[in-house]
Amino acid sequence: MKSGSRFLNAVSAVALSAGIVASGAGALTLISVTAAEAAVIQRIDVRGAGRVGADAVRSNLTIVPGKTFSNADIDESVKQLYATGYFSDVSINVSGGTLVVSVKENELINQVVFNGNRKIKDDKLAGIVQTHSSGPYSDTMIQADIASIKQAYAAIGRSEVEVTTQVVPVGEGRVNLAFVINEGDRTKISAINFVGNQAYSSGRLASVINTKKSNFLSFLTRKDVYNDEKLHADEEALRQFYYNRGYADFRVVSADATLDESTNEYAITFTLDEGPRYDFGDITVESTVEGVTGDSLKGLVVTRAGDTYSAKEVQKSIEAISDRVAAEGYPFARVTPRGNRNLGNNTIGVEYLVDQGERAYVERIEIRGNTRTRDYVIRREFDVSEGDAFNQTLITRAKRRLEALGYFSSVNITTAPGTSPDRVVIVVDVQDQPTGSFGIGAGYAAGGDGFLLEASVEEKNFLGRGQYIRIAAGGGQDDSQTYSLSFTEPYFLGYRLAAGFDLAHSSTGSNDDYDYEETTFSVRLTAPITEDLATTFRYNFRSIDYSNASSDLSDTYQNLVDNGPWVKSSVSQTLTYNTLDDMTLPREGIYATATQELAGLGGDSHYYKLSGKARYYKLLSDDADIIGSVSGSAGHVFGFGSLNVFDQFMVGGNEIRGFENRGIGPRITNGDPLGAETFVAASAEASFPMPGLPRDFNLRGAVFADAGTAFGNDVDILGTDVAEGTGSSLRASVGVGVVWLSPFGALRVDYAVPVAKEDFDKTQNFRFGIANQF
């Protein structure tokens, strides 16, 4: 109806301005089209504009008195007036030298409310819809808002939601708008089936994909929510799983989801074609880039003949070669892997071809789909910007970085032609996902704080700026209390420097001999050295206060009570090497840290301390998902004069399970720990899915063996105190554990039995708390 009126209005405008002649048949014939194209009006008459005002209407017209205009100008003016959303009808006519603009105003929204919603709160829905109070009532916009609300509910598994509207006039052209929501039942996933898999069991493949079968914890994890995008992401996860394990011909034949309307549950079936398993064949590097030979680049290749074929290893080799050639002054260099299959022995030889590549530049980086994360948070993960040479390797690296942030459920980067043949547009499509969490953790530490309970709020993408913040508070028996606050800005001053601070306070009255209170504060700056290696610099402040001493307290500890509070001020530097494939459940890789700390910038402590820890993970059985790990840790403190008790290493159950915290090492004969100048510890462990339980429960068993020692003492022994356990006798334990990768974090229960100990050591068989593998 509206387009028809525009056509008639345009015709009448042309007819009035050009002149009309009546034919014998009674039709209208235009005398001069050229005259219509050169029409001029002297004034604009606006009719029907009340609240909006005539001036606002005129400002949206492309026609100006005294200047020529055409039919295209009339049509464009009509479009612009409709686009404001304030008008339900618009017509433009020419009467003599006057342009008559007639409008009918939309009603204004007085208030927007949501009724029937329980699973998604009002404030979140208000952020989803475009209709808002004081804005125009627009049917088109409201229909778009209904679609957005349905999409939000589908994301939490309520695809059957029904959304209608109610409009209540309140006078003076204003209405109240209510979105009436029938949330319906939540859809679930009753089964996830795999067809055609021979190399890996369905249980192992189920652990690879993100979509999970519904269970009693699904209301927390939301991993049993079906949608097409998640299904496509699961297909890609399966491809990468097989490609990195030798199955270069793997393909997903189909991925189907069938809804049982009677139960409102989906059954998902992946049909797979695994193909044969390949090893790497001959590896060669050929270069056509002047001054860069293939032999000089071959040492950068991480793929080796005879190893299992892995697409990830091929990509690492491409990146290493690209970085080297670019550093030689060839930013447009291109590395192309060419695979040569040998079906006789199931090998794939890879030839890396290095050429100059086409000269292309990044015209712009276009970011789409981010509703919460700010554009600059995404842009800064790219090592290229507008105007730089286009390099596909750097684009692949940026994609990997964006996925590792954990801010997005999907990341897709494509390219499009620019305004000229040598220009490329990088298109980044992302989907934001929730990054905040509320956690409740519990633990038990015998000989220390006893039972502990902690609640925390964590946000990894604070205000969409990519900042990390965590606030936690906890308590335990005998008035034990803990508080902590951490904040990290990952790109300090616009550079790839992670700056932050940590603040914590704890107090306990559970010790039989004294009360203990501690406040710590540190500021830190982390700089990357390579993709896997980073260094962190810290300033550390620690205040320690011992009080309420018992009559049985040793003289050495009585000195701590009488002369407190004690202050320690230090600077430290840590190197971190991390090649883990997954930080939650690592199966392959190394995580290692080495720290040096210098105390003496004021305060009561003066020492130089070295410590380090490394853990290596190896998948022992891929299909059974048995993960082996070995670790080692050590430390030594050099005192500038005598050390304090709190300056030395307190070693116990964190290093060797089966012992209390501070349970081994030098101590006074009455049992008070002194700490140790030196400690060494090692551990070996194998973990596996709990037999008889679905892997979706994320319950794993473990068997382990720990060993180590803590020795040496440089604390002044006062009064009648006598130290024991300063020797380097070995302690060892064996045990079993259960790990639950819960929605609140990784929780762990261990039972360990010491098999080598000293009589004065403090043992603890059961240990329960937050799992900390690093």
Describe this protein's structure.
This protein is α+β, with helices and mostly antiparallel strands and 774 residues long. It has six domains: 2-105, Ubiquitin-like (UB roll) (Roll), CATH 3.10.20; 108-182, Ubiquitin-like (UB roll) (Roll), CATH 3.10.20.310; 188-273, Roll (Ubiquitin-like (UB roll)), CATH 3.10.20.310; 279-355, Roll (Ubiquitin-like (UB roll)); 361-432, Ubiquitin-like (UB roll) (Roll); 508-770, membrane protein fhac: a member of the omp85/tpsb transporter family (Porin, Beta Barrel), CATH 2.40.160. Helix content is 18%, strand content 44%. It has a 16-stranded antiparallel beta sheet. Strand 18 and strand 19 form a beta hairpin.
Task: Note the main attributes of this structure.
14 helices, globular, Ubiquitin-like (UB roll), 774 residues, disordered N terminus, 6 domains, three-stranded mixed beta sheet, 16-stranded antiparallel beta sheet, alpha+beta
Compact overview of the structure:
The protein has 774 residues and is α+β, with helices and mostly antiparallel strands.
CATH topology of the largest domain: Porin
In terms of DSSP E residues, the strand content is 35-45%
End-to-end gap: 68 Å
Specify Rg, calculated over alpha carbons. 35 Å
CATH class of the largest domain: Mainly Beta
Number of helices: 14
Shape: globular
Which spans of ≥5 residues are poorly predicted at pLDDT below 50? 1-37
Strand-helix topology:
Blueprint: H1 2-18, E1 20-22, E2 28-30, H2 33-37, E3 39-40, E4 43-47, H3 54-59, E5 68-69, H4 71-83, E6 87-95, E7 98-105, E8 108-115, H5 122-128, H6 139-154, E9 162-171, E10 174-182, E11 188-195, H7 202-206, H8 218-221, H9 228-243, E12 251-260, E13 265-273, E14 279-287, H10 294-297, H11 311-327, E15 334-342, E16 347-355, E17 361-368, H12 375-379, H13 392-405, E18 408-417, E19 423-432, E20 436-445, E21 450-462, E22 467-476, E23 480-489, E24 498-508, E25 515-528, E26 533-547, H14 555-562, E27 566-578, E28 589-603, E29 607-621, E30 626-639, E31 667-668, E32 678-689, E33 699-711, E34 723-724, E35 731-742, E36 745-756, E37 766-770
Parallel strand pairs: 4-7, 8-10, 11-13, 14-16, 17-19
Antiparallel strand pairs: 1-2, 3-5, 6-7, 9-10, 12-13, 15-16, 18-19, 20-21, 21-22, 22-23, 23-24, 24-25, 25-26, 26-27, 27-28, 28-29, 29-30, 30-32, 31-34, 32-33, 33-35, 35-36, 36-37
